[in-house]
Amino acid sequence: MAPSIGVTSSIREGTLLTMGMDNAHSVVNAGGVPLVLPNIANESVLDQLAASLDGLLVTGGGDVDPTWYGEEPHPALGEVSPERDQFEIALIRRFLQRNKPVFGICRGCQVLNVAADGDMYQDIYAQSGRPLLQHSQKAPREHASHYIDIVEQSMLHSIVQNIRLKVNSFHHQAIRRAGAGFAITAYSSDGIVEAIESTQHRFALGVQWHPENMTRSGDPAARLLFEAFVHACRASRL
Q1: Model confidence over 106-157: pLDDT tens digits?
Q2: Catalytic positions, please?
Q3: Which DSSP string corresponds to the chain?
Q4: Model's pTM, two decimal places?
């Protein structure tokens, strides 16, 4: 039986759950069954989801509330969703406690780090203190716009079998300090963090780019990332 994978969703207009179909197609094509999650931070709901799902895909979306890492809002902070933050952070922590696979994409990478008590730049252009690349590309979502360098012998390196990739980019926030038990395993050429992974769990990986969109163009690294994640979800049931 294919592993059941929870896929997080955005909240639109206060009442609508939305999730990009590229996330669902990428999970299905890698051999998993995607289940869209509700953003309801009820303790019994969270406990049952963590117990019943084989893996968690934390998707992209809006900004993370800086209250979670002890900061006041910067003027460049974008729209936040308190309900989504609370739900995702609580669910990620339950998955990590159970050593079940977690794969975070863009915002998902950031919120995974915050769940592990790391912190972030609320806006890289205002706070990083150095010249930066264009990290919110104007090209189509499946187009790779800039390069990243990957730490050798990391899990990410073992999955994509490369120390350099060209990736897409749609963000103005980024990880500043890795959370407890996590290591930074990829950077862009301007020093912005592009990936983190756990040193303590079987599979807890966050990437700053959007591999789910790059699967449209047949990008091999994007396909390998989802295949590795789904494989880990299948193995977590054993």
Answers
A1: 999 999 999 999 999 999 999 999 999 999 999 999 999 999 999 999 999 9
A2: 106, 210, 212
A3: -PPEEEE--EEETTTEEE--HHHHHHHHHTT-EEEE------HHHHHHHHHH-SEEEE---SBPPGGGGT-PPPTT---B-HHHHHHHHHHHHHHHHTT--EEEETHHHHHHHHHTT-EEES-HHHHS-S----SB-SS-TTS--EEEEE-TTSHHHHHH--SEEEE--B-S-EEEEPPTTEEEEEEETTS-EEEEEESSSSSEEEESS-HHHHGGGT-HHHHHHHHHHHHHHHHTT-
A4: 0.98
